[in-house]
Design brief:
This protein has 6 helices and 8 strands; from the N terminus they run E-H-E-H-H-E-E-H-E-E-H-H-E-E. It has 186 residues and is α/β, with parallel strands linked by helices.
Length: 186
């Protein structure tokens, strides 16, 4: 799953890093659909702030999710369009981790300039995540009550409230301390 902005293209470095992975990745990019919800006389500053010319990123993620869960795969990769893998086994490592950690529903790789103090961080970035299909089947991406909360934080909080079939709750965490990088979006 790769959400895109309207008219956005994918940098060749991103595509190359996906193609070099040791596991096959079926890329599913989708642009945010346009939805006009401005009104006559709306202040231009407000229009810019809420970006009235497009639906939320959550709407796009949910559209991608609806397509992705129909596939037979056990895991579904969510990757932002600017993320570049740094080795040919990044996704394979994520798969291996989920295979051996049945309580973890989502594992991520870091792309931000933050030093991870714990792999089970309180805020796991959505830039590069591998989901268990069973998590996505019943999860709806959202933007919070006022349509402006951090999607990453909401996912992290929401996921840790989903009951695990063996008791307790699902976990989301970073795989390790490796850091991918992000290119400038084009």
């Amino acid at each position: 799953m790769m959400p895109l902005g309207d008219g956005q293209t994918i940098d060749p470095k991103v595509l190359d890093s996906i193609a070099m992975q040791s596991v096959v990745i079926q890329l599913m990019p989708l642009s945010r659909p346009i939805e006009h919800f401005e009104f006559k006389g709306m202040d231009d500053v407000f229009k810019k702030k809420i970006r009235t010319n497009r639906k939320s990123i959550s709407t796009t993620r949910n559209a991608l999710k609806a397509l992705a869960v129909t596939k037979a795969q056990k895991y579904i990769l969510h990757i932002d369009s600017d993320v570049v893998f740094t080795s040919n086994h990044d996704v394979e490592d994520m798969i291996r981790f989920l295979d051996t950690n049945p309580k973890v529903g989502v594992v991520g790789l870091n792309t931000k300039d933050i030093e991870l103090k714990t792999l089970a961080a309180s805020h796991v970035s959505m830039a590069c995540l591998l989901f268990r299909k069973e998590i996505l089947l019943n999860y709806e991406f959202h933007n919070g009550k006022y349509q402006r909360d951090c999607n990453c934080q909401m996912l992290t909080n929401d996921l840790r409230k989903i009951p695990h079939p063996d008791g307790g709750f699902w976990e989301i965490q970073y795989l390790d301390n490796r850091k991918l990088y992000e290119v400038v979006r084009i």
